[in-house]
Amino acid sequence: MKKNDSKTPYILIILLDLLVFFLLTAADLFTKHLAVLHLKDSEPIVLIPGALQLRYLENRGAAFGVLQNQRIFFAITGIAFILAVVWFLKKIPAESKYRILRAVLVVVAAGDVGNLMDRVRLGYVVDFIYFSLINFPIFNVADIYVTVGTAVLFILVIFVYKEEDLEILKKKQISDEGE
User: Fold this and answer.
1) 21, 29, 96, 98: which one has the fewest Cβ atoms less than 10 Å from its Cβ?
2) CA gap 146, 28 in Å, rounded
3) Is residue 168 within a helix (H) or strand (E), and if so which, with residue range?
């Protein structure tokens, strides 16, 4: 069994990844369910006047409404992304210094799956958070996971992980391919 530097069995790391993934995905789907129940066909709920509202929107596109009604494209790219994340998670060493990297990938994957489930089930994504102060596009919890997770991933790769850390990942990939 693979182990990390703190002697935590690798299977426990995988189980924790799965638990976090399912909890985050469930939280996203639950908030969307609440949005449908309380916001659909209703007036927006103003949380902070002039700044923040809860407003129902069925988004058939991507961010900022681009690629409207491209359901098959989004399904294929969403599935491909999840497969890439799973593949990459298998390649990340179980050492504790890579735990944040694992966690960020799990958060981004949960966001992708939350929106993918909406697209497959409904043909659109339920969005409901609106920053009226800056007229920002309406978004949802899964979008927060993807956006914040991607930003953290960028920061990790640019500022935290050194070249030798990334080389370890490359060497692990090569050794795994040889097995």
Assistant:
1) 96
2) 12
3) helix 163-178
Helical segments of 40-162, H only: 71-91, 99-122, 141-155
Catalytic, out of 5, 17, 143, 176: 143
In this structure, are residues 28 and 114 in contact, taking their beta carbons and an 8 Å threshold?
A: yes
Measured distance CA(2)–CA(12) in Å, rounded: 10
pTM over 0.70: yes
Catalytic residue flag (residue 118): no
Q: How far is CA 111 from CA 24, 27, 37, 83, 96, in A?
A: 8, 10, 21, 14, 24
Q: Is 145 exposed, middle or buried (0-12, 13-18, 19+ CB in 10 A)?
A: buried
Identify the H or E element spanning 30.
helix 10-39
Give which of 131, 69, 65, 79 is closest to 109, Cα–Cα: 79
pLDDT digits (tens, 9 = 90+) for 82-128: 999 998 888 887 777 888 999 999 999 999 999 999 998 998 999 99
Is 5 a known active-site residue? no
109 near 21, Cβ under 8 Å? yes
Catalytic residue among 17, 127, 165, 176: 127
Using alpha carbons only, how large is the chain's radius of gyration in Å?
Answer: 19
